[in-house]
Amino acid sequence: MAHGPRELGSEVVTVNEPAAPTLSDWKRMYRALWRIRTFEGQVQRLAAAGEVPGFPHLSTGQEAVAVGVCAHLTREDTLFTSHRGHGHTLAKGSDVQATFAEILGRSNGLCRGRGGSMHVVDVANGVLGATGVVGGNLPLAAGAAWAAQAKGKASISVVFFGDGATGAGVFHETVNLAVLWKLPVLFVCENNGYAEFTSREEHSNVKLVSAFATPYGMPAKTIDGNDLLTVHAEAGDAIAGLRRGSGPFLLECITYRMAGHFVGDAQHYRSKEELTAIKQKCPIERLKRHLIDRGVRETELDTIGEEARQEVLQAVARARAAPPPDPSTVLDYVYSAPALSGISG
Ligand SMILES: Cc1ncc(C[n+]2csc(CCOP(=O)(O)OP(=O)(O)O)c2C)c(N)n1
Ligand SMILES: [Mg+2]
User: Fold this and answer.
1) What ligand 1 atom has the least distance to the C-alpha of 161?
2) Do the domain assignments include residue 6?
3) 21: in domain
């Protein structure tokens, strides 16, 4: 796809087309998929045992979207996610132990245990937040893109959201302004066919989310979100365009959540046949088959998967060993120090 150079103040940013990944890049991404899969499995295990506060929402089965998109991001690029955000945070490069500790509400978590599963933030890594408000991060992502544009930075903003979020007015308000102001924001919709326990067919007459881009004049594509090769290629193309200043893009990734809406969801609204069919679309298995076809030995891939699993298990053990925040620090980070000075009891 051809894009012109993006002019940033007096600076003209040259953006090369993304290079085709090497076999070692694919193996690194295979490891990243396993890292997320194992992480979510551990959240599920500990949540079932009552160790995780709140209702964690797992991204099991949707890993290829996170890994394929985030492979193109730098630390300067800002990422916003939804209630189903653990995988995006890890794929952007946040520390596994600190992310898990945050979900457990421990003092060594990314937000010192104040946030939990739906409020993970890692500013140093450009992860500007998850949210429990469906669609709530869409305008924040546009705002971050606007800030980058105003400051003449080459960075972009990416927001992950579910298909259900497109039913919220804020989605349309954000897209409208993003197109008008040519903001460098990538809208990544993970269309898993459900909003909570309601299938898309039951709550929307618009089958594909990409159709919403047309009236606003925004380029969009619907792709197979369980095929890492496709996600990586299409996200790379879209992001190169964004960096050149061609304005926002909507990437709709068709994917499937292998787990319930939240941990504890008995999934009475899904048949056994549907769950079996979803397992057969596993993005990790699909990448594995592709790499084997390209000559990589299965044993090597199994070793990579096992190493990723061990890395996560050790991080989880360290996260669990940390204490919760000291109750005497409950007001820390709520108000800035200057705001508190002058207040007396
Ligand atoms: C503004 C708002 N409305 C409703 C809810 C309740 N809610 C939580 S998740 C969810 C469904 C979201 O579906 P989708 O955007 O497709 O994301 P998915 O869970 O499928 O990843 C709803 C309606 C909420 N959290 N926030
Ligand atoms: Mg959904």
Assistant:
1) 15
2) no
3) no
Ligand 1 geometric centre to CA of 110 (Å): 24
Does ligand 1 have an atom closer than 6 angstroms to the CB of 88?
no
Alpha-carbon distances of 272 from 35, 37, 258, 267, 281, rounded to whole Å = 27, 21, 12, 10, 15
CA distances in angstroms from 208 to 29, 82, 211, 250, listed in the order given: 28, 19, 6, 12
pTM listed for this prediction: 0.94
CB of 34 sitting under 6 A from ligand 1: no
Region 148-168: what's the mean pLDDT?
Answer: 97
Residue 23 in any domain: the answer is: no
Residue 274: CB partners within 8 Å, gap ≥ 6?
none
Residue 2: what pLDDT? Answer: 35
What is the Cα–Cα distance from 278 to 262, expressed in whole angstroms?
A: 17
Residue 135 lies inside a defined structural domain of this protein: yes
pLDDT single digits (tens) 196-206: 999 999 999 99
Residue whose CA lies nearest to ligand 1 atom number 4: 134
Could you read off the pLDDT of 223-237 as tens digits, one per residue? 999 999 999 999 999
> What atom of ligand 1 comes closest to residue 136's alpha carbon?
1
Whether residue 228 contacts residue 283, with contact meaning beta carbons closer than 8 Å, is answered with yes
φ/ψ (deg, to 5) at 225: -80, -5
Domain of 81, CATH number, reads 3.40.50.970
Domain count, the chain: 1
Name which of 301, 284, 230, 237 is nearest 63 in CA terms: 284
Sign of the torsion formed by the C-alpha atoms of 68, 171, 81 and 149? positive
* Residue 96 contacts residue 35 (beta carbons within 8 Å): yes
Q: How many residues does the chain have?
A: 345
Q: Which atom of ligand 1 is nearest to the CA of 165?
A: 15
Contact (Cβ atoms closer than 8 angstroms) between residue 325 and residue 107: yes
